[in-house]
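Subject: Sanity check before I submit

Could someone independently write out the structure tokens for this chain? I want to compare against mine line by line before I put it in a report. The sequence has 716 residues.
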Amino acid sequence: MGVILIPLYILIAVAVLYLLIFKILGLRIIGSNEVAVVEKWWSRKGSLKDSIIALHGEAGYAPDLLRGGMHFKSALMYKIHKYPLITVPQGQIAYLFARDGLPLAPTQTLGEVVAQANNFQDVRGFLQNGGQRGPQRGILREGTYAINLAQFIVITPSDIKAIGNSRSERAEIASMQQTLLERDAFRPVVIMANASDTSDIVGIVTVHDGMPLEQGEIIAPSVGEGHSSFQDPERFLELGGRRGKQLQVLTDGTYYINRLFATVEFRPKTVVPIGFVGVVVSFFGKEGVDTTGEDYKHGELVEAGCKGVLEKPLMPGKYAFNTDAGRVVLVPTTNIILKWNKSEVGDHKYDENLTEVDIITKDAFEPSLPLSVVMHIDYKQAPWVIQRFGDINMLVNQSLDPLVSAYFKDVAQTKTLIELIQERSAIRERAVTEMRNKFQKYNLQLEEVLIGTPRSSHADVQIENILTQLRERQIAEEKKITYQKQQSAAESEKSLREAQAVAEQQNFLTKSKIQIEIEGNNGAAMASRAEQEANQIIALAKANASKVRLEGEAEASKESNVGLAKAQAIDAQVRAYGGAEYRVIQEVADKLTDAIKNSKVDIVPKTVVNMGGNDGQPSGGSNGGGSNTVMDTLLKFLTLDKLGVSLQHISEPSTTAQAIQSAVEAAKTGQTPSAEQPVPAADGGQPNQPVQPAPQETAKPTAQEKKQSFIPKEKI
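---
Independent answer below. Compare away.
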């Protein structure tokens, strides 16, 4: 290919045309996303003296911008500074620095916001309506803006957009940019609870512009919500807002705050948990009126909005409390356990500095006494406690510890070690009663006092020896009770075993009981029959007895008659014999004769010596004869002597048949005649003297003796 050669004249023509159009005529083409600042080289109106923006056609930067399109600005008079529109991304803030305008007042740090400036896009409106040079209170939020960079320097996180600034000016703007980066000022203030944080946060605002705080104040008062939470600086200042720490805080939300006007510090919200109240100590407010009364000399309680301890505490909850404007002291309303024990600490940790109470007992032991005190603070009294002691730690360490220690030291001096251990319950009850009044003086409610076991140092074993003895005694007592329980259990087991055995044999027991009832019924029937038979026998016996009695009475009557007859016959015989002794001799002889006859013993001698007789027959026959042998007489006397009959004691016959009949009659009537009763004489004469009882006879000889006495020693 060959090179196309352009004629020289054509090139010259193009160059002339270019100079004519772009240099002399000043054709300028501005894109739709661009703007241009016009800088005028010269003007018949002269140049600017103390400003850089030529509002009246002077030489300098024109306030108006060239927007998209074709513009003719002769290069011989104007210089065009073309640049893209200023775009602020979403979620960012851009700051502005005005190069021209009124100077700032001594109390100002930022230039006022001019509403006529249309977000700094109308330089003429800004300057003509009191716009001030320097950093501005207003900010650019997300969006696209046509900013005259000759008037306003736009500061973004990554760039400083400006036209025609000097090196020193650029260095100053760079320093301001660094400050804004440190404050994270290019992003809005976002307050929310972080996912990793269980507590919410609040924003503590410090305003850097406006009138200073009044003398003696450390917190600027709230001016209401008219300033949209510090997002409208002009409105804030109009409402009387002052620079410094603000009482008002920022809660959850997003806030586009000029961080050159106000900085924000994040603090966690104040949480008053359940079981606590928050006593507020306010650092801000007016002088309040004491609500405790004149009798209370330990400080003041004030109402809300005043400096001091507020009389009304915060109840359980979450509060956006400005911790720079006050302090919230948490006071537990649940029971507080304080342990005087260096090895244990309560949940509230108010007793971290407490140790056992060193005591001296009455018997000179020096143990350490662990204690626990349970107390309660009424939520209404919580401000009184804080106002008086500052906080609970100071209350415990400076007041309760000396109070409790001194009390138990005094008690220990009146008790021996054993008494201190054994009477612990009584000591505890007394301590609760007496110390409750002392706690009430501090606006506290004592619930309970717990006393531990006295402890000794490691080198002292005497206390441990005493405690060992007490333990051994208790073990012995427990063993006794255990043995008693075991004995009772054994007896119960025995009863159980017996019950089980009875249950196992219940069938047989039931059968046996039924059999017993059957046998009982049979026995009752037999007894009834026996009783009937006995009654029958008794009736028969009574009948027989009556029969026998009647027969006996008849027989007795008969025998009495027979006896009476015999008695009369005997009486007649006695008279016939001539005396009673002869009748006796006759009876004896008859009995002896019968005995000899029945015994079959040879009593008659073979040889009889007869002393003489009438007819040679033995005497003693029925015929008797008148003559008796000497042998007969001798035998009779021997017989009478053996029978113990003395002829001298036989009196005259005195008993007659009538006396015997009287005795028989007396026997029939059941009356026994007295021994002294006189017996009537048989002949009808005077009664005889009472019959004297015969003397007791001697022992009668036996039949063998009688037999031997009648057997002759030898036969003659």
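---
OP: Matches mine. For the report I'm noting this point. Residues 329 and 390 are 9 Å apart (CA to CA).
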